[in-house]
Design brief:
Blueprint (H helix, E strand, L loop, with lengths): L4 H17 L8 E4 L6 E5 L5 E6 L12 H14 L14 H13 L4 E5 L2 H15 L4 E5 L4 H9 L3 E5 L4 H9 L7 E6 L1 E2 L4 E2 L2 H10 L3 E5 L14 H4 L8 E5 L9 E5 L1 H10 L1 H4 L6 H14 L3 H20 L12 E4 L3 H15 L1 E2 L2 E2 L10 E4 L7 H17 L10
Parallel strand pairs: 3-14, 5-6, 5-7, 7-10, 10-11
Antiparallel strand pairs: 1-2, 2-3, 4-12, 8-9, 11-12, 13-16, 15-16
Helix pairs in contact: 2-11, 3-11, 4-5, 12-14, 13-14
């Protein structure tokens, strides 16, 4: 006999009410970016009225989603090909635009080949869940703070996994020493961890991989386009790209478009292409998106002034927030987390920034970050000008007082 539908509805109510009670129910706001005006946007309020806002939490880190080079490439491809790709990469969905994009990405990371996915999440999930099929008995060592897509790929792969404490190379060594020396191994980690903005110890992990004959898998999602002399990421900045076997990246953040990718040896890419269901059975990204992404990657290989201005904006924001005693996390990256420490207060400040000051920054609560570390995460860009920065700093100062939140003792 079919269960009473009301019982299902009650279960859903219980799950949703739990989020509301804990103050971590996620709300989405309706915004419309205006071409050529980013980071300005228009917020459509629940009552249907509109308000001009400034976006301070977007992942279009360099404003490339508005860049004429990208827009013109997309327009040309759209006029030439139409909207969609028409199929999976295996069945009519591989175009000259996809191949050109993969060539740009392989060149970016100085690898033999690249493979484009619909998102970096899918790229991580599909690749990490496929590798044990290629290397029977593979043991994957995964940083404890790896992105959910990496966790999911490692969890689903059916192979052996070990979790090492975040950025703790000594703990990683202990785990590797305890395993069969003959077993194939892979270390999966990130170059920049997006919630705290800290860097992974790439060189030390590569040294360990050499010592234990392990492959390395590096997620550069929050670094591609922004670090290194051509935007190849932190590994390029540090001269370590040749020591990393597989690099994962996104086209939806610094490059301002959509999609994800891996770069590696030609044989590795061919094997993932041939065995990963997440690649094989997914419609490919539209040609216009591929064209825009390729144009963005190509442009950022030479636009160092944009990268420099991005770092300068982040540095100034951190200095000014620190100067007011606000509890920020500063590991030297472009990500600016301000710790509130309570989900209700985090949501309240986010709401007041939006409604009273026209500043949009999304609250970040558990499970994205541990309880007690709830935060606002600001992502300044080269197109956030000094006037916008002044407005943000004044608003944060006023709301910190309004909510009677603690500040650092600046006299110490």
């Amino acid at each position: 006999m079919r269960q009473d539908p009301a019982s299902y509805a009650a279960a859903l109510d219980t799950a949703l009410n739990r989020l509301h009670e804990e103050g971590r129910y996620r709300t989405f706001i309706d915004i419309e970016r205006r071409r050529g005006q980013f980071p300005h946007a228009v917020w459509t309020r629940p009552d249907g009225t509109e308000q001009d806002i400034t976006v301070w939490c977007g992942n279009d880190y360099l404003g490339m989603g508005q860049h004429p080079v990208v827009l013109n490439a997309m327009k040309d491809a759209l006029e030439a090909t139409g909207a969609g790709s028409g199929g999976t990469r295996n069945i009519s969905g591989t175009t000259v635009y996809h191949k050109a994009l993969e060539a740009e990405l392989a060149d970016l990371h100085d690898k033999e080949a690249a493979l484009v996915f619909t998102s970096a999440y899918i790229a991580n999930d599909a690749t990490l869940s496929t590798l044990p099929k290629l290397f029977p008995g593979l043991i994957i060592y995964s940083d404890a703070l790896n992105h959910a897509s990496m966790i999911e790929g490692v969890r689903r792969n059916g192979g052996n996994k070990r979790i090492f404490r975040h950025n703790d190379v000594a703990h990683l060594r202990e785990l590797m020493e305890a395993d069969d020396p003959a077993a194939p191994k892979l270390i999966a980690f990130e170059s920049i961890y997006s919630m705290d903005g800290d860097f992974g110890p790439i060189e030390e992990i590569c040294d360990l991989a050499d010592a234990f004959n392990a492959l390395t898998y590096l997620d550069e999602v929050h670094a591609v386009g922004m670090y290194g002399p051509r935007g190849g990421g932190v590994a390029e900045r540090d001269g370590l790209m040749d020591r990393v076997d597989i690099i994962n990246g996104t086209l939806g953040k610094a490059y301002g478009v959509m999609g994800g990718f891996i770069t590696a040896s030609a044989k590795m890419v061919d094997a993932i292409r041939s065995y990963a269901p997440g690649f094989i059975f997914t419609t490919s990204i539209p040609p216009a998106v591929a064209a825009g992404a390729a144009a963005s990657v190509r442009h950022l290989k030479t636009d160092q002034p944009r990268r420099d201005l991005h770092q300068e904006r982040a540095k100034v924001l951190k200095l000014r927030l620190k100067g007011m005693g606000l509890p920020i996390i500063d590991h030297g990256s472009h990500i600016v987390p301000v710790i509130v420490g309570d989900p209700v207060h985090t949501k309240k400040i986010s709401d007041m920034l939006l409604t009273d000051y026209g500043i949009y920054v999304q609250p970040i609560n558990f499970p994205t970050v541990p309880r007690g570390t709830e935060r606002l995460r600001f992502t300044p860009s080269p197109v956030h000008d000094p006037k916008m920065l002044d407005g943000l700093v004044r608003a944060m100062d006023a709301l910190w007082n309004h909510c009677a939140l603690n500040r650092a003792d600046m006299t110490a």
